[in-house]
Amino acid sequence: MTTTDLEGLTALVTGGASGIGLAVASLLAERGARVAVLDLDPASLKEPLRGFTADVSDDTSVRAAVDAAAAVLGGIDILVNNAGIGAIGSIEDNPDEQWHRVLDVNLLGVVRATRAALPYLRRSAHASVVNLGSIVTTTGLPQRALYSASKGAVLSLTLAMAADHVREGIRVNCVNPGTVDTPWVGRLLEAAPDPAAERAALSARQPIGRLITAEEVAAAIVYLASPAAASVTGTALAVDGGMAGLRLRSG
Ligand code: NAD
């Protein structure tokens, strides 16, 4: 089946109540999948998306939400590990507690949700996991030490999981977005001394000259999750406006 039609499939998106996760959940549903969202606060979600409250840093809540979602959906074919938090600074700027917190959500959150979903994925004929990496996995950006370490680990984990589960028919891939226009980036811009100047600087940093949209990232994730990508596993797809691959000279 070389199609991005997801009719008859089921999908679970972590952190799907906002930004990229919400765009992914919406597009998965638009393509015909039955979709559940696992989030700290899923109250704002609208039909046909079904929300389940869980914190990916808490194993018990993740297991309960994954089992409840699978029961309602009738299984899990697609898992999108999108929940994540940011951290600004060099290695001198964040105390150990903050390192533990960000790694607990960004890295161990992927482990917990995938571990809980594996029994369902094993029963699927189209099992696929897509993890949210970042441009920072392949490009050194200043003031992102902790966040980069967490997302670099997600990229390595993606490759390891792809190797471990390929013979079970479970594909595992990663998407590396550049700077995406989401509520998260909106909060960063609001905190800047000059939000408009900061937005212009972030846009100029990407060779296409603008921020990426959440819908553009969602389209890449849905492709990787779909039967059209049946032979694609253990790869990272950059959706970054050329940021990692192109080295343009100004002028
Ligand atoms: P966002 O803040 O708009 O949305 C994140 C969602 O995750 C929210 O709904 C939030 O409630 C949920 N969440 C956070 N912590 C959680 C937890 N512990 N348990 C369950 N849910 C939790 O963020 P976004 O910009 O859409 O980013 C989504 C993902 O994309 C993240 O993994 C982020 O690292 C990655 N990413 C974002 C960008 C960007 O520029 N926005 C770039 C590269 C990668």
UniProtKB/TrEMBL annotation:
Gene3D superfamilies: NAD(P)-binding Rossmann-like Domain. It comes from the Bacteria. It holds the Pfam family adh_short_C2. Keywords: Oxidoreductase. PANTHER family: DIHYDROANTICAPSIN 7-DEHYDROGENASE. Belongs to the short-chain dehydrogenases/reductases (SDR) family. This is SDR family NAD(P)-dependent oxidoreductase.
